[in-house]
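User: Can you predict the 3D structure for this chain?
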Amino acid sequence: MSFMQQTLRCAFRTGRSLRDKHISPLIPGMRNGHHRHSSTTPADDPSQFPGAKAPFVSDLKLILESEYDAIPIYRVMDSDGYIADKTQDPNLSKEVVQKMFNDMVLLNTMDKMLYESQRQGRISFYMTNFGEEASHIGSAAALEMRDLIFGQYREVGVLVWRGFRIDQFIDQCYGNCDDLGRGKQMPVHYGSKELNFVTISSPLSTQMPQAAGAAYAMKLRPNNDACVVCYFGEGAASEGDAHAAFNFAATLECPVIMFCRNNGFAISTPSYEQYKGDGIAARAHGYGMATIRVDGTDVFAVYNAMKLAREYVLRENKPVVFEAMAYRVGHHSTSDDSTAYRSADETEVWNSKEHPLSKLKSYMVRKGWFNENDEKEFVKEVRKKVLKQNNISEKKLKPNWKEMFEGVYYEIPPHLMEQMKELELHIKNHADQYPTKSFEA
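Assistant: Here is the predicted structure, written as structure tokens:
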């Protein structure tokens, strides 16, 4: 009898004996309470597989996603702004809580006005942050200025908290000569070296592997005391770059917080069509990372969780996947009409009872920290500043058109120099066809 025949016969007999004994299959980690049939082989045996350290079992069964509990959502405040467990109150000062509220109001007010500016044809594109203000402000408040931020495009509140000015926001949206990006990016693609906020890119997920690499570089610095925070949406997590970033962050043990803003929609695609399984947080386990999931409409929950995550990544030099659950109240952008794929009634719930501002306002009212007249005056002042700056930024000149050839290479290569000269001659010959007076000389 051949070796193959002996092997098959042995396998057949083994399988039949298992069936005859009616041994029920048991998988480690299942919820059915069965005992696990583990191998007597010790865990440190050199014959153990290098690819995974796990016990052997003598029963066979598929491990189903439905057999595991969903990762819970941590929250501090309920829908009415009450704190159920007083031990979870971060006990922030009145001044800090007031800044949180004011920054969210500023962001909300600026969004409304710039959205209307786009509708009037004054700027080309805009994206609002309605419903996600708490995830921005709560996370930013828990970080240090030295921490490096990689954003996707809906994290404007982080910049507001760090001190990015109204004129800087609006100049960027107009792409004028005072735009820090010199008009080389779409509107809402902000960046600030001063505030440690890496300039946003349009393609989804490109910032994620970059963030893992930046965190690895920080890890190599002596006495490192800063981490990287990378924001992305649940739709971006479907891109290949997201999985590459998770793997790099985990295997290189990088001090990076992968912050997923799960707002339920990737443009017009609802989350249940984007992925199966337990959201984004559960993916951390598969890559060997710690994870946390929070109520992204609760500014205190986000704050507490970000504090914990930051302490962990700096102490352990390991990454965390952070999932903030929220709801995108506004349209994806000015190029989208969300009424085509969701009801107005559904949106209204998240724009009122479950809105981050409503919860924090209720908390402040009970603390005696809220003044209705002060809020009205603050909104009035913000509107005045935005309106004034809109008119100023709109009239500013655009950067010199030659700058489109600059900023990529330290020295402009010959082929770009040739193109620039060709374009210069073309504009000179057809000056009446181009708005050259709108650009810096």
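The radius of gyration is 27 Å. The longest strand covers residues 256-262.
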